[in-house]
Amino acid sequence: MTIAIGFEGSANKLGVGIVKHENGKVDILSNIRDTYITPPGEGFLPRDTAQHHRDCVLTVLKKALSEANITHKDIDVICFTKGPGMGGPLTSTAIVARTLSLLWEKPLVGVNHCVGHIEMGREITGATNPVVLYVSGGNTQVIAYSQNRYRIFGETLDIAIGNCLDRFARILNLSNDPSPGYNIEQYAKKGKKFISLPYAVKGMDVSFSGILSHIEQIAKERLPTGEITPYDLCFSLQETLFAMLVEITERAMAHVESSEVLIVGGVGCNIRLQEMMEQMAAQRDAKVCATDDRFCIDNGVMIAHAGLLAFNDGFRTPLEESTCTQRFRTDEVYVSWRD
Predict the structure, then answer these.
(1) Do residues 199 and 244 lie in contact, with contact meaning Cβ atoms separated by under 8 Å?
(2) How many CB atoms lie within 10 A of CB 238?
């Protein structure tokens, strides 16, 4: 039996999770999270987000230990997000992990944020060898496993899909509580009119920045006239972006002959995206594996789980190498724990 605590702070969520591995079984002991929420129309700056993490990390840590009903003496390894992410928040979180490693005399494991999402998704859904659609505020990738690496088959050429949705929410001055993407999803349900937008699929890659510029111009010109509503714009944006994602995911599934697709990352909570993916999968006699907001949205338990997989396979991060990096690609990680 091994127990890991995981610290996630790559963006505006500060998460601490505790997980136990015993005889091939995974038990989630706690999964506590605190989100930095800014006023409507504003994003979150790295400096302010890092301060939020520093302010609340001890409270979140104590809650996680209390809910798991363990003490630090029961923990075998401390896992933290090494990257990718925002520099300030990453560093603030890593400092906590390093400090506890020294205080508690526990080994460290640095975890790739993207691999954390994938491994947590596989564990929760039971997916065996899926094509992975990883969609969040900072990443958009289509991934499949091969020869101890999570290979990237397609990705965004500019901004991530979550960033595109968040920035459009700012244009509409939507609330950031609980998240801009969630509020766009609710607006889209009320949309009645589909507005044609650019469709930017380039091979296996996608591009969102031009679509965002285009819909921003439409919003400025046509919303004041009452010709269209914010609901119509959210509906049209979602349908267009998600159709692009479904297309490149299906192409990857055909290439690797997969009958499973796993959706991970914060945008993976979106019910409409799951519905569109299920329609495609049904035509291929495939299935969609997805999770709810407990595990789609950034959390500490995914870092603990992925870190513990590596730890149990002999991996350690020496203190002098426990740095963070804003750029840490999914396919850089050697996945030793998979065949």
Answers:
(1) yes
(2) 23
Evaluate whether 49 touches 89 at the Cβ level (below 8 Å).
yes
> How far apart, in Å, are the Cα atoms of 231 and each of 9, 185, 189, 235?
32, 9, 7, 6
Count the neighbouring beta carbons within 10 Å of the beta carbon of residue 189: 12
Question: What is the sign of the dihedral through the CA atoms of 9, 11, 252 and 241?
Answer: positive
Query: Tell me, what's the pLDDT at 34?
Result: 98
Output b/e per residue, 171-181; b: 16+ Cβ within 10 A: bbebebeebbb
By the 8 A CB rule, do 157 and 207 touch? yes
Residues in the chain: 339
- R_g of the chain computed on alpha carbons: 20
Residue 156's pLDDT band, with cuts at 50, 70 and 90, is very high
From residue 194, give the alpha-carbon distance in Å to each of 179, 228, 229, 233: 24, 10, 11, 8
What is the arrangement of strands in the sheet containing 108-112, beginning at the earlier edge strand?
25-35, 13-22, 2-8, 77-83, 108-112
Distance in angstroms (rounded) separating the CA atoms of residues 305 and 329 = 19
How far, in Å, CA of 339 to CA of 330, rounded?
Answer: 17
Which CA distances in Å does 296 have to 79, 214, 241, 309?
A: 19, 29, 19, 19
Q: Does the pTM of the predicted model rise above 0.85?
A: yes
Q: Which is it for the CA torsion 163, 169, 171, 176, positive or negative?
A: negative
Label residue 189 by pLDDT band (50, 70, 90).
very high
Report the share of the chain in percent with pLDDT over 70.
100
Whole-angstrom Cα distance, residue 248 to residue 315?
Answer: 34
For 144, the 3-state DSSP assignment is strand
